[in-house]
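Hi there. Long-time user, first ticket. I'm pasting a complex I've been working with (about 227 residues overall). I'd like to know whether the download I got is complete or cut off, because the file seemed smaller than I expected. Thanks.
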Amino acid sequence: QVQLQESGPGLVRPSETLSLTCTVSGGSIANDYWSWIRQPPGKGLEWIGYVYHSGTTGYNPSLASRVTISVDMSKNQFSLKLSSVTAADTAVYYCARRVVVVTRDYFDYWGQGTLVTVSS
Amino acid sequence: DIQMTQSQSSLSASLGDRVTITCRASQTISTYLNWYQHKPEKAPRLLIYSASTLQSGVPSRFSGSGSGTDFTLTISSLQPEDFATYYCQQSYIIPLTFGGGTKVEIK
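Hi, the file is complete. Here it is re-exported in full:
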């Protein structure tokens, strides 16, 4: 059973960089796509981007200028960096595994989520 | 971006009811549509992928249908553990986008 666990600071100052790590257990980070998704308080889910085990990335254009997602195969982890944060970036951040096989494309395993608050 | 619209932000139902949740895409997405169940403080759970395929381990009272722009998630007989928020998500094109969610509440 694949499990994902987010970790990182719960409080980030405005204009600074939000940094989160997702640790994958019960399976290898190789051969799959790994995504970050967030949910601001009282709002719906927003896809942030993905990284493939090779390091290939894809980002939501609405965030692309501020986002970097990377993978560390040796630690079975992938990470999110979001720069120049504002209060609008306050959200629960989830990491998830994205399965992409022919006509199938979905998120099958998710972390529990971690709340990140942007405030001075 | 493809906009996903769940017209019901919430609905009230009783145990044993048949519940239907709808989702509409702003352009055709074939059957690249997934459904998730989300409970507070928990990880979202994949229920249905490719519009109608039941994810392994998900009870058979859940079913999905539709193609193109209109999709439906049906719970045939609502159980206590089904009270949650349900999201649709399109995987036809980047950026991947979600519907706003439908919260199923106890009547």
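A couple of notes from our side: The mean pLDDT of chain A is 95. The longest strand of chain A covers residues 91-101.
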